[in-house]
From TrEMBL:
Pfam families in alphabetical order: Slp
InterPro entries named in the record: OMP_Slp (IPR004658)
Membrane-spanning parts: none
Secretion signal, residue range per the UniProt entry: 1-22
Keyword Transferase included in the entry's annotation: no
UniProt superkingdom: Bacteria
Family matches, as PANTHER family: OUTER MEMBRANE PROTEIN SLP (PTHR37530:SF1)
Protein name as annotated: Starvation-inducible protein
Native organism: Sediminicurvatus halobius
GO cellular component assignments: outer membrane
Alphabetized UniProt keyword annotations: Signal
């Protein structure tokens, strides 16, 4: 009976996993961007799953490099609100449309660490870990918040001068 309960519990918990198929298959012990940035040669060839907000997109003749501000991933693989150690470069083969992959959009990539590249942020030289992207998910933009509702204090049955309970002569 205990084995049956354990099996059912495992199946129910597995059914709750909502990570997209494109992001599965990376070990949980994968290094974070800050660790790779400190020593990129030690992590060359490691498979990682990183995500964050797109900062800029640079297209060259054969590839596209997307600079991403790293964020810690939530349970479903979507970037959260907490930082995860700086920035990284996601290297895509071919062309990626900068209008679709616009700055501010959230992205999660799965790929292999291929080293580091130094670029400038303002006048500061910054070393970006580079990930050769195998699979990725560009997350949908959140729906805009509805405008706040205006409440007119003079509208409604309890505020109307014609409300029947307020004026007995109304009857």
């Amino acid at each position: 009976m205990r084995v049956f309960v354990a099996l059912i519990t495992t199946l129910l918990l597995a059914g709750c996993a909502n990570m997209p198929e494109a992001l599965q298959g990376v070990p949980e012990s994968a290094p974070m961007p800050a660790a790779v940035r400190a020593d990129p040669d030690a992590f060359a060839g490691e498979r990682v799953r990183w995500g964050g907000r797109i900062v800029e997109v640079e297209n060259t003749s054969g590839e596209t490099r997307i600079a991403v501000l790293a964020r810690a991933l939530q349970g479903g693989g979507r970037p959260g609100d907490t930082t995860a150690g700086g920035r990284f470069l996601a290297r895509f083969e071919g062309f990626v449309d900068p209008a679709e992959y616009a700055a501010g959009r959230e992205i999660t990539v799965v790929g292999e660490v291929v080293g580091a590249e130094t670029r400038r942020i303002g006048d500061y030289p910054y070393r970006y870990p580079v990930v050769a992207v195998e699979r990725h998910v560009l997350w949908a933009e959140p729906a805009p918040a509805p405008p706040p509702r205006y409440y007119d204090p003079w509208y409604g049955p309890y505020y109307s001068p014609f409300y029947p309970h307020r004026y007995p002569w109304y009857y």
